[in-house]
Amino acid sequence: MIDLAVYNTEGQEIDSLSVDESALGGTVRYRLLKQAIVMYHANKRVGTAATKGRSMAAGSGKKLFRQKGTGFARVGNRRTGKRVGGGVTFAKTARDFSKRMPKKQRKLARDSAILAKLKNNNVVVVDGLDFQKPKTRDFVSVLSNLGIDGSCLVAINEYEDNLHKSAKNVPKVAVVPVAELNAAGICSHHKMLFTKEAFLSVLELKQSR
Questions:
Q1: Tens digits of per-residue pLDDT, 122-135?
Q2: 20 to 30 A Cα–Cα from 119, which one of 43, 52, 57, 66?
Q3: 3 state SS of 170
Q4: Using CA atoms, how far apart are residues 196 and 206, in angstroms rounded to an integer?
Q5: Are 24 and 111 in contact (CB under 8 A)?
């Protein structure tokens, strides 16, 4: 079991949670975690880089002059990669770099990423993040009260417009609903900030109100 403190926006501890590691897979699956991170980064690649090869370059395919007897070096047609205006040797073509993983593996990788953050004391839980209006200064103040000064991934239960607008200008901070959490996003940030409701939903627990 991992004991996790719950803070308010002033940085005061008001509650605590006991997290069973088995709810997040029990152990950190590093191989699966790496596989998921590679997949998410590969899927970001556009793969549209392309250059004209010999077959695509404009110009005749006829040999410029006969092979022997001219005194010049032998040469092919004008589309060869050795000549100005010819095609590119080993030309780049559009490629699909995308990779796939089963849904269960993606969830296990996400849980392993969260568990790794928990074991390294890089998870902070706050009772709530309610903003009446967008205010970057207030959001930065909350992070400061919670001792978060580097990159941080803020996980919330549902999309909140005021919170997103308050955080969008803060460098190295991203706000994501728990339904959109993935291993790559978690591992690319040093800290994770959960609202209590969001953290309980990750653990598939129902919060009584």
A1: 888 888 888 888 88
A2: 43
A3: coil
A4: 11
A5: yes
